[in-house]
Amino acid sequence: MMKQVLRISGDMHAQLRAHLHPGDLKEAIAFALCGRLSTSTHNGLLVHKLLLVPHNLCIRKGDFIEWPTDYIDDLIDEAAEKNMGILKIHSHPDGYDDFSKLDDESDKILFPSIYALMNEQAPHFSAIMYSDGGIKARVVHTDKEFQPVDNVSIVGDQVIIYRSMDNVGNDEINLRNLQTFGLGTTNLLKSLTVTVIGCSGTGSIVIEQLARLGVGKLIIADPDLIELKNLNRILNSSYDDAISGVEKVAVMQRAIAAMGFDTEVTTFKSLLQEDGLLLQAAMASDFILGSVDSIEGRNIMNTISTMYLVPYIDMGVKLVTDKKGGIDEISGSVHYLQPGKSSLRTRGVYTIDELAAEGLKRTNPEMYDEQRKNGYVVDINVESPAVIPINMQTASLAVLEFLARLHPYRYDPNSRFAQTNISISDWEIWHEAEGNDDPYLKKMVGRGDMRPMLNSPNLNELW
């Protein structure tokens, strides 16, 4: 059955909460222009732009609100032009935790008029926000029938997911996780779909940890086969795997199956930038963790995070030689990326020129070589060597960051941990707060489906 989802960035959720619950215990209302998530498994609305209906234009009571319907005309016109969705969201300051009969009557009057102005009949949503910021949402179909939204995600410094949860029961295999993180976190992990891009040195360690923590579904991707040179750093790989040329993703899937956690695993033996189905799977995921050297891949994951409101953790390991047989620097970094904030580019992980050069090298190596000789593109590294101890350290920091975003456990707030760095050379670990917002990506928050895909002409053929 198609899963219905609603996603909101942390900043927009804060704006909605301040408007809908100003403290006077009267209902308030807002609307949102929403991008769409449309895959074979998911239908979703992604909040892109807010329209807060001024309180002074409304008749407001504790259990009633009347507002000027023409106030949203321009928003509906924009949604129709761009094939986007409309979210209606209002407050219940009295604490009533469900849609009221008045809400039902209002939605059955409003939404048919919205559908009548649309070029397509994709669904629109109605929602309630409670005083604590919690949200309950529903689809309002063209036939005026209502369908609950399966989960509502708030993607900010903390990732909050409102959904119905299955009981864990007395499953002894999860007992230690229950004790460490609590029943709520364990239930949430079991319900999550997490995409991991890259199954090599660091990625294989991340996958191992996520599976043993009890994540319900893992989507793992890597185009390569196990080779002899991989055996010193890829968990669960063997000499026989290298001789037989077994796919890295197959080795990960085999190891997870042997754990006995009933983790659902989907594998892709492909590059993210070359597989439309993998791109859609990442877009529909609850979380993305990336462990790749590719600038293209990292840029795409950062863009998916922004446009589809998916929290993204990037990790990297760096080993620099002194060109005399020794080591000059050993370091690792973990980045948490959220919609509308800084990006890997603004944090200096890569430049636009390096991104363009890598894309050209992959798609047209002859032209890349020619332009590099002529000085038109920058030279790029083909491989970044790594060793398993620093891989282990960096992967563990990434998974701890993942857990901290779901269930904050640090003394300091999550906002101070946009980036965590470790230097083995200096034997230091430090963290950094958010830097400057990425001005380009900020405009694309919650934009969702569009042509070209991810606003990138290079990906349009994968749609």
Automatic annotation (TrEMBL):
Ranges of residues in domain THIF-type NAD/FAD binding fold: 177-428
Listed Pfam families: Prok-JAB, ThiF
Source domain of life: Bacteria
GO terms, biological process: cyclic threonylcarbamoyladenosine biosynthetic process; proteolysis
GO molecular function, one term: metallopeptidase activity
Keywords: Hydrolase, Metal-binding, Metalloprotease, Protease, Zinc
JAB domain segment(s): 12-119
InterPro entries for this protein: JAB_dom_prok (IPR028090), ThiF/MoeB/HesA (IPR045886), ThiF_NAD_FAD-bd (IPR000594), Ubiquitin-activating_enz (IPR035985)
Name used for this protein in its record: JAB domain-containing protein
Protein source organism: Pedobacter westerhofensis
Biological classification of the source: Bacteria, Pseudomonadati, Bacteroidota, Sphingobacteriia, Sphingobacteriales
